[in-house]
Amino acid sequence: MFFRSVLLWVPMLVGAGIGRWRRNRAGPDVPAVTGVWSLVSLVGALGVMMSRNAIMEARTIAWLNTLGVVPFELTPKLMQGVSGFAAFVLGFGLASMPWGAAHQTSEVPANASGVTGATQGPVNKHSSTKVLVIISSVMALGSGIGVVITGLKKGGFLTTSDVGGLPELTHVQEQLRPLEACSLTYQRRDKRGQRQHPTSVFIESCTVGEYISVLIDVPGTWADKGVGFEMTRGSMSEPWEILVEKADVPFPDLKEALEHFAPLIAARYPEKLRERREGASEMERHLNERERQEQERKARAKTSYPE
Predict the structure, then answer these.
(1) pLDDT tens across 118-168, in order?
(2) pTM > 0.70
(3) Of 82, 156, 234, 249, which shows the fewest CB atoms inside 10 Å?
């Protein structure tokens, strides 16, 4: 995960270098994208970069694929290219901004109110642009610091590594690949860094907007060994990323836990998901019925009093 994040700095630095070279070579007359569009593009590029982290990437891909706004299926490799381009745009945009104070001098007519040959003082044409640039820089810096701090916490994307491609976990991948699930978590850390729910695995489907969590009961034996992991993927056709803190979880214990959990999850999850969906549909029907009755009651109330 750390290596993946560091890769974004390469296109950003390249973009900054090209933007700086463009400004220096062309001089102050080179056109620059300024104003509101500059702010929107920089913030947008930063948002695309943040969507590349391990926590958001799978959900972003699944969300965009579900919306159908892209005429082809998004993949992690394609997202990596898009986020790299966004990093280049961010670096280029910041470096090519007109940071210097641009001035203009306008001559006052000689017959104007008794003033002869007077000239106005220098006027800064880019004061508003400077403010936007400073705001954009502060926002980018603050967001970047926040992302780094979050990533460095226990269980953050900078402290976890993807071990899903190890051949020792191939059988686990095969067992869990057919499931209609894109997120699987065991003993995720809370805000204080403590692991929670030692006897349950939390699973979420790949359907965007379906806020349903399926819980599968598992033995708490591996919680005593400090095992904890998160599995994510963008769609059912992709392999799982198995994110784990290598410095905290021994691989033999992780492998043993996954091999024990996988058949339990594969056997119980489909039925549990069906039950949760039926319960959610029943609740939605109940709420819709209550809303209909409430509207009818209000309609009757309006005509129930004598004139």
Answers:
(1) 444 444 445 555 555 565 565 566 666 655 555 555 655 567 789 999 999
(2) no
(3) 82
